[in-house]
Amino acid sequence: MEKLVLHKKKTSLVDKIFVFLNSIFLVLFVIITLYPVWNTLVLAFNDGTDALRGGLYLWPRKWTLQNFITVIHKNNLIVGAYITLSRTIIGTFTALAANALLAYIVSRKRFLFKKQLSLFWVITMYVNGGMIPTFLLYKSLGLTNSFLVYVIPGMVGAFYMLVIRTYMTGIPDSLEESAQLDGAGDIVIFTKIISPLCRPVYATVALFCAVAHWNSWFDAMLYNRMNSNLTTLQYELMKLLSSVTNQSTSAESMKNTVAAVTPTSVRSAATILTMLPIVCLYPFLQRYFVTGLTIGGVKG
Amino acid sequence: MVKINWKEVKRQKVLLLLSSVYVIYGFIFCYLPLAGWLMAFENYKPKEGFFHSKFIGLGKFKQLFLDDGFIRVIRNTLAMGVINLIATFVTAIIFAILLNEVKSRGGKKAVQTISYLPHFLSWIIVTGILHDALSGTGIVNDILVRFQFLKEPINFFAHPKYFWGIVAFANVWKETGWNAIIYLASITAIDTALYEAAAIDGAGRWARIKYITLPGIKPTIIILLLINAGNILNAGFEVQYLLGNGLVQSVSQTIDIYVLKWGISQGDYSLGTAAGIFKSMVSIAIILIANEMAKRAGEERLF
Predict the structure, then answer these.
(1) Mutate which of B4, B6, B13, B15 to disrupt the A interface (most A C-beta within 10 Å)?
(2) ipTM (interface pTM)
(3) I need a labelling partner for B103 at 20 to 30 A (CA). Which of B147, B223, B264, B289 fits?
(4) CATH of A75-227+290-299, one of 1.10.3720.10, 3.90.226.10, 1.10.287.620, 3.40.50.720
């Protein structure tokens, strides 16, 4: 691309127009992406009753932290946050370990059944039993109404395994061979030699798993709806959101209005708190998901 | 090729032992549910179980296809699947190409970082925001009324004609930046000498995009289309479930929502399973057809 700069003097009028329109387009794109989130932030920091007057666009009119205080006093959201945090940490760790070990096994050239074991898992990407049989299976295994349903069934995922496998295949065999000559077994080779080299791809897979865990709500609704001590943050947020859209004139919301917080403002505050951890973290993890997507997507 | 013999098996005992754990796990969680497909051919009663429920052959499938509701659900799933696939593909490719034309490194990086943001938000949050923005008092109505495009605010969620468009927009808003990552990566892989040569020959920006960038990322586009074609029917759940309501259910319900409604809420496990099997079959057929088409056209393919 550097050489193109030499031809810069020749940039025609058409090119100038292009650059101009392109900038406008990208600025619009950024506004459309950011504004809804920004507006939620404004509502979350604005006094609830005052917000009902409308006209809040770019900056809070009447600052308050009351909405956030109301949110952190909502017991179900706190329990939900605790469950979500636990499943994110435990689920990410176990999934990473399980997928990494499986990827290690199927990427050993000397392993007798590497092709068959790979195929066994790749098939699961395309064929699955569907919602009802899966539901009945979990029920009969005692996984419904239990925290384990968040961690155990989704532990191995063929896509994550393939991403790690692709990365592992790129590691020279000589490392493994010399370790074998020194008498190292598979466990040692996996933990001490291969895994340290796979840190970037592990980070990628961990990031994908963590985001999926943090944002999940459907499994909570399907399997643990009956036990409010086990539902996730996003599911509780959904209940909060749908209760507002459906019964905004109910007695409870009238009561809240008196306390200067409205359902809408509480909802905005809850939304902001729920997205906060991910929004703060993702910009620093960019290189991991960019490499991960490129490995996984192109070589699939 | 390593030969299977006793000595080799003994040498690989750790790998074999670990593999067997994965096979058992995979068998239970991924393959055992397939046995549940038997339910679709029975009048399944939880009390009687798999082995004693009455076998009724294709009865449940017949019931499905005689149900106008199910036909509508198939139409909705396919229509939204295809619309979303095309909309998200086209916007991601256009965004990647336009972003690639930006000279300033900082600007490019900033726009790209912002573009990922919605991908990390859950559908709960995204649909919540959409509800606010498109409601009668939301920003969209506010703008449309203020600039006189509309006389009075519309509740966009009350009219079936807007629903597919809203779902497509939601997908585009959430995934454009994320999907563009792969295209940007494959644009970077294009040999820069091609651009230099074209510039010397006097090719303008459009010509360079049309004759170098697009052909350069064509293999990536095709592979991703193939992968995503198989997911057309899977893409029809969260958004529709969260955005749908009684007023628009004729266009919002998808196969998965149908399964949830009849299978889980109404307890007709057999009907739900039959609908699920139909969905799996169509998905596999779509993948195979798409793959075959790519093969005929002499393009990249999955297998």
Answers:
(1) B15
(2) 0.89
(3) B223
(4) 1.10.3720.10
